[in-house]
Structures are given as structure tokens and as C-alpha cells.
Amino acid sequence: MKKIFAAIIVTGLMASCSKSFLETLPINTITEEDFYKTPADAYQALVSAYSVLNWDGYGNIALSSEIASDECFGGGGTSDNGWNQWDKSIKMNDLNSNAWKKYYTGIYRANKLIQKIDAVDFKGDDATKKRYVGEAHFLRAYFYFDLVRMFGHVPLLTAPLEPGNYNILQASPDSVYMLIANDLKLAAGNLPATPFASIPTGEYGRATKWAAEALLGRVFLYYTGYYSKPDIAGVLSQADAIAAVDDVINNSGHSLIPKYRNLFRASAENTAAYAGQNNAEGVFTIQYTYLGLGDQNQQNGNRMQVMIGIRSQELGPYYKGWGAATVNEALFHSYAPGDTRQTASIISINGEGFADTYTLGDQAQYTGFFIKKYTPLKDKNPDDLGGNFQWDNFDNYVVIRFADVLLMGAELNLTTNAAKAQEYLDRVRDRAFGDQTHRVTLSSKTQIMQERKWELALEGHRYWDLLRQGMTVAKQAIDNPSSQAAFNVVFRTETNGLFSIPETQINLSNGTLKQNTGW
């Protein structure tokens, strides 16, 4: 009999973060014939699709793309593999297998719910059904967008695969992006337009109309830039993208947190000043919890945090980690004087007074700088809370921040409404410097891309921003000529910035899947 295996997250409350949306009773196994009958069944299936967002480790696109960008090196231990390979575009067998598995699992679960939801008896509650359908389409679009950015030509599945039908040809990126655009348009039409302040705390982490519209803007800018196209396959125009992003800016109730440093727990002025895990700036936020309590199979914790933590030691307020993604010194020094984003984004070992207490040990590619935004803290560390620091860090990851939406709005409106574009940019810079005297006259896309570099540093966006400006721009930024072999990085334009498809998947496909150029 066909079976589904729903990995349901058990979560709880942490500080100001309410994650009760994911507090759903776990399922072991249940026959498909007995499932998809009640709204509760549909809800559990929906949560199982959301739960894939938590799968991290080497499947974390934010970490792998940061390392592939000009902002970070691989780091980690001197004997570690993987991180260095992303840094230098070196082929390593099955390096990206976790990401491939993660995204296709999420796509399968979303497809299954979309396929089966008409069999559920909602007893006339059409609003709930409509919302679940919208969320499933949002998640499918989200998973496919990460997948197609990483791998380019990928199998396009709009329904669960049936036995004997596993070898699916890779689709053109145009086809994948058409599906993504249509999914997000459907999601934006189905999902509630609830202002942020009215969202129940137990529903934090669920997709909203605003999340779908913001993701539409991101997808439009990436696709049209990377592929040099005027729109997305005739289904999403620049005017559509502008309308979506402007709607988020004007009507969502999301806003900038007054002080940049208080966005992140590790850089906040103090505990009381921290804006919280689900603050008004988070348009779409992935929820994490420490309540796996050491069970790595729960996959509830933010594993990127342990990977980027200062390697094997505790310094000041920071807790231990594995030292991945050491920050390029050039990024630290690129900030203008007075820009509060510099020290809120980056730990400087010397600048924060750790020169005499830091121990190099087996840290690879040491630069003196580490990612601050999501680094683990001693305060409420997982070990003290009954968990394990390797699996149970709990800081949420903000996929889309309101500041990002403002910068997307500035970019989209640049050639059609210069005054609006200027206003959006001003709001970001005014917050960064704490005054209006650091404004710049906006005249080019290059200025916006620079602002994105400083505003969104180390949050997983830089690599994609470089690629959508073209291979020449990407290579100029990522190449790092150095007499030290560890820091000598050459961006291989023959890959077009795509990652290698896992070799096990190619082998399992009996030759149906073809490896990307350059790998």
C-alpha cells in the first residue's frame, strides 16, 4: 500500500518567538487510503511540507551560496571537506546531495497535498481550503526557486512520481520559472492579506500574501537578470513585479526595525532591545527550535548556526561552533564610517578585544572575521537548555526582510519612477546610519547592488545578486588572487555559477540526468 511519511515538527516557545503553528502531533506511518479525508489530515500534510524548510546541514543554500560568493571563504577545520569545495568550485562527489534531497522532498510533499486536497471534506469551509492550497503552491515555488538557482536544468514535477516513472528528463529553466511564477501568483491570490500586527503569534512562519508577493519580486529580478529576459515566460511582467512589491511596502504592515543591530540576537544592544525572533521586518521567516533536545533526526534546529560559530571556543557572548564561512576582510572594510551594519553583521576578533584570548587551533582560512548575524550565543545556548549545540540552535532565519523588499522596490522602479526608487533607498540608508545626512542620489542599478551588499551581508543573497549581473561581474567580485594558496580563489565562468548535480542522482537516473557544464 502507498504510504506517506510526514515529518512533523514539535516546537515550543523561546523568548519572544511563538512557534505554535508547528505544534502538531507527530505521525508515524499511515496508509494513504485512510488519509486526506479531514481538515486535520490536510493540516498535518501541510505542516510536513513546511517541516522541510528546517532541513539544514549541507543542504542549506544560504550557507553554501555565502561560501561561493565573495563575502566568505570556506573555513571550518583544516581537515574538513565541502566548505572549501564550495569556496573554490572544486568537484567533490555528492557535495550537493543534501540540497537535492531536501528540495525534492519538499516538492513531493507539496505536490501530494495539491493532488489530494479536493478529496478532503472541509464541510463548507472554503476559506481554509483556499489558504492551504495557497500555502502548498507557495512552498512548491519556494523549493523550486532554490533548486533551479543551484542546478539550472532540473526535473519538473507537478505531481508525485509513481512507481516505474522515476527517470524524468530535465526541464528547461524557462519551464521551471513559469511554474514558479504561476504558483506564486496563485498563492498571492489565495493567501490572507493580514497586516503583520494582526497575525496571531501561533501562525508565525506561515506564508502570507506578502511573502508570496515579495518572493515574486525576488524571482523576477533573478530570472530576468541571470537569463537576460524582459519577463518570466510571458506570465510575469515588470509591471506585475512592481505592483506586488509595492503592495508589500504599502499595505503589509511590515516595517523596518528602528535600529539595524537589534534585528539579530547576536548583535542586539541588549536582551530587551532585541526585536525578537518574529519581528515586523520578517516578511517570511523559517522557524527553528531547541526542542529536538539532542535528537538530530528531529531536524528542528538551525544547523547553519553551529557551522558558522567561532571554532571550538567561547569568546565573550558567543558560543562555540565549527568555524565555517570565515568572512572576507574586504567586506568588513567596505563599509563607510558610521554605517552601523558593519559591526552588527561581522565579528572582528581584534576589534572586539579577543586578540589575546582567541586560539587558532585547526581553523582553516582564518581571516580574523566571523559571521555575527546568526552566530550562536552563550545566553540560552542549546546545551544549557537540555539539547545539543550541534543540532538545537534556535534562532530563526529571515528569508525575506522588509529592507530587502525596499531595495527590490528601488531596483524595479528605478527606470519608471525615480522618486519612488529614491524614497525606498533612503529609508534603508537612513536606518543604517541613524540620520539623513548619508543619503546618496540614486542614478544606477550599481548603487542598489552595493546597498544590497551592505544591507543583506551574510544572509545568503550576495552570490545570487552577483550572478544576475552577469558572469563578468561575478568573476570580478569573487576572484581573490592571493600568494597564499588557501585564499587564492578563481571563479570558473564555465559553470555559469551553477552547482554540480549530485553524482548519485545522475547514476540512479540511468543517464537521464546530465551534469552541468564545467563539472
Question: What's this model, at a glance?
Answer:
The chain is mainly alpha-helical and 519 residues long. It has 17 helices and ten strands. Residues 1-19 and 22-27 have low confidence and may be disordered.
Structure in words:
By secondary structure, the protein is mainly alpha-helical. It contains 17 helices and ten strands. The strands form five sheets. A two-stranded antiparallel ribbon has the order 1-4. The chain is globular, with a radius of gyration of 22 Å. Residues 1-19 and 22-27 have low confidence and may be disordered.
Features:
globular; disordered N terminus; two-stranded antiparallel sheet; mainly alpha; 10 strands; two-stranded antiparallel ribbon; about 5% strand; about 525 residues
Sequence of secondary-structure elements: EEEEHHHHHHHHEHEEHHEEEHHHHHH
Q: Tell how many strands the DSSP assignment holds.
A: 10
Largest sheet: 2 strands, antiparallel
Helix content: 25-40%
Secondary-structure map with pairings?
Layout: E1 3-4, E2 13-14, E3 17-18, E4 30-31, H1 39-51, H2 61-68, H3 83-88, H4 97-116, H5 126-151, H6 173-190, H7 209-226, H8 238-251, E5 282-286, H9 303-308, E6 310-311, E7 320-321, H10 329-334, H11 341-345, E8 346-348, E9 369-371, E10 397-401, H12 402-413, H13 418-433, H14 445-455, H15 462-467, H16 471-478, H17 503-508
Parallel strand pairs: 6-7
Antiparallel strand pairs: 1-4, 2-3, 5-10, 8-9
